[in-house]
Amino acid sequence: MSAIFGFCTIDNSDNGIKQMLPWNRPYGMFKEALFTCDKVSIGCCVEKLSDNHIQTVPVINDGDCHAVIDAVIYNREDIIAECEVPEDISDAELLYMHIKKSGLTALKNINGDFAGAIYDAHNDRLTLFRDHMGVRPLFFYKDKCTVAFSTDIRGLLALPLVKTQVIEEWIYKTVSGFDTDTLLGTPYEGVECVPPASFLQFSCTNWNEEISVTEYWRIGSTKIRKKSDEEYIAGLRELITDSVNRRLNAVSGLVGAEMSGGLDSSVIDILINRAGRECIYYSWSKDPSEVPMAEHDERLIVGEICKRENISCYYSHLSDNYEHGMEEVARNAEINVPENGSGDFRFAFPSNSNTYQIIYASQFVKSKGANVIFTGHGGDEGVSHRSNIYEMYAHHEYYHYWRYLWSVTRGKNRIFRTLKKGLTNIAESKKSLKETYLNWFESPELLKEDFARQFKIKKESALLFEFDPIGYIKSGGSRNRLDNMALFGAYSGVRYLVPFFDYRVIDYAVSIPRYLYAHKGVKRYIYREAFKDIIPKSLYRLNEKEDMSLRNIPVRDSWQEEYARRKREIIESLDREYWGKYLDFAEIDVHLSKDYPPEEEYEEEMRHLKAILKCALAHNLYKKARENT
């Protein structure tokens, strides 16, 4: 995957562009270039995904305009015809030509994953933009004399011009359990994400001028209406199939795909196979020869799909170790990695909910020769959509709400029992789904009282996942996983492709009447019906599965020793002089003094450790990014 980075500042005498380069280099090892003029420096590290249109010009220089763009475009034919350019033009140059011809608002017509920066020297203006769903990351920083941007947040923090620190409110919210995985926020002052489906413009002459933010597309703004349920079902299948095929056509050679045994990834896997494309299928689950099957084991579904489609699936192994591959990438990128410690700290990972299975999957398919890996991420959020029946009530589909409850209620006093069930669901859902969402690791008791008193406890956002897909996506519910796929994919040399986040698919899905997601007593009804003829009956009926058969993984003899080592590493990584202003170390030492806690204290300690880890990683990332320079 390609990376873009750079800055514009009043005084460019202290040029820090080379400090940004190592952190962005893993995203594109094919070719790289830097460009500097007056007060502006920009750079790009390019990947190679297609043999038909290779990006050989990392930095686009067009008169007074200089651009760096990270892009994979899925409707190339349409844009090429509109711009009247050669068919072998790279995606980055094609996107630039489209903007040049039709303006930035025409980004709404680009079906692709992209992020870009354009410096217009004539108007002394820097523009940053990002794809519809935020599949590609792009961070920026602004103060009174500098604007900087980077695909990798560590590249931004490595820039000496960036003057920032961990936000105190972020510390308070993180430890208190409030959700900090928002659409735009980061743990650092002045550092944000470029909003998806938007472009930002900065004046590099008048530094006091407000940032101009323009939204070129809005999820759910296009209302799609069909005459029947059957038309909705057919439309959903057509769009998802087209989305998968467009992504297959955008890349050359062998591809990879996650296979979880769930509805989302399984449909994508089957569509890839039926498109006739050679694919490496990989399951996060452990190899059945190492870990016995569980009652609702996802590997049973995986096996059935493989048998029906005549394909093979590779499984992860208990002995898998991702760090060797990451060390090699870091070494090639000229990033200094400490010899000891866990990956979180050694590689200065952001304080996301790190998903190491992403690393296993991407490194494995790369080892087999694939440069991309398909994922089912995004299905749950809005396309296949795990809805709560309260969603129908919340969206004023009252007739369908009561009709559904009537259909799943049997026996005597049916009317009374249906009414009771509906009213109970409304009351419980309003309480559980609309109340402030708190993470499982909430540990406000670890905060210093005088620090915590500075912040008023206010009503924070609810977790909208089960009844408001538009609100959930707008709040940043998908961002954490997308950021991880971009980062960990880069360190494995692959790009993640996300068919469910094709903006046409998501726009269509959120326009579907909500009752079609809980219809005839079947949850995720419309999605199941759309692909009923190609998925196994067991998958169509699937309501629950046991991911990776966790209960059956054998316990290692050394796990308590490893637990104690990990705990010490987390606690000792905290600079007590710095964190002493915020955290109550007396309380921390009481809770975490033992190598391994008694069983009744284990859950509480895990809660505290996670909260502390989030803080430690945020500070470690900033320090390590600077040290590497």
Give a description of the structure.
The protein has 4 domains: 213 residues, 4-Layer Sandwich (Glutamine Phosphoribosylpyrophosphate, subunit 1, domain 1), CATH 3.60.20; 178 residues, HUPs (Rossmann fold, 3-Layer(aba) Sandwich); 46 residues, no CATH class; 69 residues, no CATH class. 39% of the residues lie in helices and 15% in strands. The protein contains 25 helices and 19 strands. A hairpin with a 2-residue loop joins strand 18 and strand 19. Helix 6 runs antiparallel to helix 19, helix 11 packs across helix 18 and helix 14 packs across helix 15. The relative contact order is 0.13. The model has no long low-confidence stretch (mean pLDDT 91).
Summarize the structure.
By secondary structure, the protein is α+β, with helices and mostly antiparallel strands. The strands form four sheets. It has a six-stranded antiparallel beta sheet. Strands 4-5-6-7-11-12 form a six-stranded antiparallel beta sheet. Strands 15-14-13-16-17 form a five-stranded parallel beta sheet, sandwiched between helices. Helix 11 (356-367) packs across helix 18 (479-490).
**Distance N to C terminus:** 23 Å
What form results from the Cα inertia axes? globular
Question: Which regions contain 5 or more consecutive residues with pLDDT less than 50?
Answer: none
Mean pLDDT value: 91
Strand order of the largest sheet: 2-3-1-9-8-10
Question: Could you give the count of β-strands?
Answer: 19
Helicity, in percent?
A: 25-40%
> Strand share of the residues?
15-25%
Instruction: Please give the domain count.
Output: 4
Q: Profile the largest sheet.
A: 6 strands, antiparallel
Question: Structural class, from helix and strand content?
Answer: alpha+beta
In angstroms, what is the radius of gyration? 25 Å
**Tally of individual helices:** 25
Q: Which architecture of the largest domain does the CATH hierarchy give at level 2?
A: 4-Layer Sandwich
Report the CATH superfamily of the largest domain: Aminohydrolase, N-terminal nucleophile (Ntn) domain
**CATH fold call of the largest domain:** Glutamine Phosphoribosylpyrophosphate, subunit 1, domain 1
What is the CATH first-level class name of the largest domain? Alpha Beta
